[in-house]
Design a protein that fits this description.
The chain is mainly alpha-helical and 156 residues long. The protein has one domain (5-148). The protein is 45% helix and 4% strand. It is built from five helices and two strands. The protein has a two-stranded antiparallel ribbon. Helix 2 crosses helix 3 (58-69). The longest helix is centred in the first third of the chain and has 20 residues, at 29-48. The radius of gyration is 14 Å and the shape is globular. The chain starts with 9 loop residues before the first helix and ends in an 8-residue tail after the last strand.
């Protein structure tokens, strides 16, 4: 599977895209669609690799935040993956940014069978695609990345 559009029901995907657009006035709809799709790929990859503590770019995090706000959709998505993917945000601190972590995360997404939209994997200080998301994620092993709840692999 190279894209993520089939992982969400069309009306659910449209709702999450609407949330991204609502949080980012003036954003083009096609950018919001790409952001949501990349967030779904990221979530799927986290679920497949629960111990790897992957981290999203700030732009992809915008889509992840919107997805999480649709709690039923997010829970159903995680149930489909067999593991709930947690999000623990931290205040932004670009000094913690490690470009290698974003590169590693993109590589894991590719290994999971997805095509990566590289234009959305920007450094936290790159505002060429402005988004409302304003949190950072720790280095692997910290608490601010995505984590799978490895203690419960059934429905949550």
């Amino acid at each position: 599977m190279s894209d993520a559009t089939g992982l969400l029901v069309a009306k659910d995907r449209a709702g999450v895209i609407g949330t991204v657009l609502g949080n980012n006035p003036g954003m083009a709809e096609n950018i919001a669609e790409r952001i949501v799709d990349e967030a779904v790929k990221f979530t799927a990859t986290c679920a497949k690799n629960p111990r790897d503590r992957l981290r999203p770019s700030r732009v992809v995090d915008e889509g992840w935040h919107a997805l999480i706000l649709h709690t039923r959709v997010y829970k159903e998505l995680c149930d489909d993956f067999g593991i709930f993917v947690h999000h623990v945000p931290e205040p932004p601190d670009p000094s913690r940014h490690n470009a290698g972590e974003l590169t590693r995360t993109r590589e894991m997404i590719r290994k999971a069978g997805f095509t990566v939209d590289g234009a959305l994997w920007l450094a936290p200080t790159d505002e060429s695609i402005p988004v409302a998301a304003n949190c950072e994620h720790s280095e692997p092993g910290g608490e601010g990345t995505c984590t799978g709840d490895c203690s419960n692999t059934g429905p949550n």
